[in-house]
Amino acid sequence: MNTWFMWFIIFWVFLLITFMSIGGFFMFRKFMKVLPKADGKSKLDWQNHYVETSRHLWTDESKELLNVLVDPVPSPFRDIARHSIAARIAQVALERKANSITQDHCIEGYILATPKRDYNSLTSYLDKKQIDYSAYKHLLN
Length: 141
Hints:
Layout: H1 3-34, H2 43-53, H3 60-69, H4 78-95, H5 103-113, H6 119-128
Helix pairs in contact: 2-4, 4-5
Keywords: Membrane, Transmembrane, Transmembrane helix
InterPro entries: YneK
Protein name: DUF2621 domain-containing protein
């Protein structure tokens, strides 16, 4: 057997193992989100609950602000990010028994829905869009 063919096969074995590991990691993360918590509902069930419960609270301005906030997310993941951020915003508004979702709810929910590792890009994006988040700087710690 030729040595170049053997190296070619070894390269493809490592490439396939790498891609399967990456895919498995993301599948495992998704699986963990659908496992029920102590209350019997999963994280995705709660997100769906908050989005459905708050549909009447969303104004055109708050929907537009949500679209602006999810704009930096890459387009293949934007719908998922919009749903999870909208759920967090809705949770904030429902906990405060608001009559409608305001810009303050959107900014607070956006900060709470963003992982801590992304806070630097979050603050730079809010600064770039000239959105005042000074009232919520305590959440960024």
